[in-house]
Amino acid sequence: MSNAPSSNGLAFMKMHGLGNDFVVIDQRSASTRVTPALARALGDRHRGVGFDQLATIETDAEADARLTFWNADGSLSATCGNATRCIARHLMDQTGKDRLTLRTERGFLKAEDAGNGLTRVNMGAPLLDWREVPLAQYVDTLHLPIEGAPVATGMGNPHCTFFVEDAEAVDLAARGPEFEHHPLFPERTNVEFVQVLSPDAIRLRIWERGTGITLASGSCSCAAAVASARRGLTGRRVAVHVDGGQLEIDWRDDGVWMTGPTAHVFDGVLTPAFLAGLE
C-alpha cells in the first residue's frame, strides 16, 4: 500500500488481530497528518471507517519503522500490541525480513515471524511500580484498594485486572467505564476481567481505555497474563482466550512476548471531501 497526496484522498489499510481492528495509515509517503479530529472521524463506525485503534507508520533512523497509536476518542495510546503485530506482518511481507525492530512510545519492540502464519512481538517488561503504571498514589499494585482487589500493571499504558469466577457474567458496558475513570488512575485505565481456566489458560474480557468493549487487545492480554502469574494463579506462559480468539503470552526475562494471527482485510482511500470536512 502507498499513500496518495491529500488532494487525491488518503490511502489506508484495514487490519485486525482476533477482531481487534485497526485503520493503518502509512505516513512515510502521505502529506496529510493524523490529528485528533481525523482520528475521531475515522473511528466513527457509521460516518467514518471504524476501528479500535488507528496506527500510523513513519520512518525512523534507528528502527525499521516508528508506530504511533490513536484511540477512537482521538486520544493517543503509547502502545497497541495487536496493531504492532499486524503492522509487523505487513512490513515483513513488504521487505522479506523475518525480524524487525519497531519504535513506539513504549520503546523499541522486537517482532518476528513465528511460523504458521503467526506473528510474535516482545511488548517489553511489565511496569509494576505504582509510579510507572501510573497510579495517583502509593498502593500495593498486586492488591489495589478497590472493591475486588484488582491488580495494576503498566504495559506502556495502564491496566486494572480483576479476577472473577465467571467472565461471561460480567457486565462490561457498566463496569468498564466505572473503573476506566477511577481516580486512582490519573491517565484512565484499560479494564480486564479474568477467569482462570487452568495453570496455563485464562479467559479474558476487555474494556479498552478510550474505545470501549473490544474483542481482543494485545496489551490487555499481556497485562492479564502478568497479573495472573504475579498472583500465583498461573505460570508465566498462558493461552489467553479473548472474545475474538486466542493469543499466546509468554512472560520471559527479556519481556512479555505475544504471539497470534493477523489479518489484512482491505485497502481504501479517504476522499478529499471527507478530509476537507475536518478542516
Topology:
Blueprint: E1 10-17, E2 20-26, H1 36-43, E3 53-58, E4 65-71, E5 76-77, H2 81-95, E6 99-104, E7 107-115, E8 118-122, E9 151-154, E10 158-163, H3 172-180, E11 190-198, E12 201-208, E13 212-214, H4 218-230, E14 237-242, E15 245-252, E16 255-261, E17 263-270, H5 272-276
Parallel strand pairs: 2-3, 4-6, 10-11, 12-14
Antiparallel strand pairs: 1-2, 1-17, 3-4, 4-5, 6-7, 7-8, 8-16, 9-10, 11-12, 12-13, 14-15, 15-16
Describe it.
There is one protein chain. The chain has a 17-stranded mixed beta sheet that branches. The chain has two domains: 128 residues, Diaminopimelate Epimerase, Chain A, domain 1 (Roll); 103 residues, Diaminopimelate Epimerase, Chain A, domain 1 (Roll). Helix content is 18%, strand content 39%. The N terminus is likely disordered. It is α+β, with helices and mostly antiparallel strands. The protein has five helices and 17 strands.
Helical content class: 10-25%
- Number of strand elements: 17
Label the overall shape: globular
Count of individual domains? 2
Assembly state of the chains shown: single chain
CATH topology of the largest domain: Diaminopimelate Epimerase, Chain A, domain 1
Number of helices: 5
CATH class of the largest domain: Alpha Beta
The average pLDDT value, as a whole number, equals: 94
Distance between the termini: 25 Å
Reported for the largest beta sheet, the result is: 17 strands, mixed
Unreliable segments of 5+ consecutive residues: 2-6
The CATH architecture of the largest domain can be given as: Roll
| Approximate strand percentage | 35-45%
- Helix and strand content put the structural class at alpha+beta
- Rg on CA atoms, Å: 18 Å
CATH superfamily (homologous) name of the largest domain: Diaminopimelate Epimerase, Chain A, domain 1
Output the helix-strand order: EEHEEEHEEEEEHEEEHEEEEH
